[in-house]
Amino acid sequence: MRWWNPAIEDACGLAAAVIAVGGGALLDPENRRRLFAAGPVICLRATPAEILRRVGEARDRPLLSGDGTASESERLARIETLLAARAPAYALATHAVDTDGLTPDAVACRVRALVEPPLGGAA
Description:
Layout: H1 4-12, H2 29-38, E1 42-45, H3 48-55, H4 62-65, H5 72-90, E2 95-98, H6 104-115
Helix pairs in contact: 1-2, 3-5
């Protein structure tokens, strides 16, 4: 069990919560079950190059930087490998939002549009 599993379990018990999990959380079947039971699951997608830009040198991300000496091309290759390995789990998401070139506020607006009922619509 990963350290985040109990946190996901607790968060899934909250009403009307947005639960942001790391990319590996959906790989665990129990996490997936809990998250999908709690509400829609939205995958925030980005290209490998955009992910690399966002994480920078990734010294605090062992899956990308290994011992901290990985080159930019090695980190990019690791991102591509991780995305390919995780693709089946990510494909299960209720919705997906492509985030390349968007500000965090713009991403939040797109997510909100997916989960909130339209104005004047049924709740």
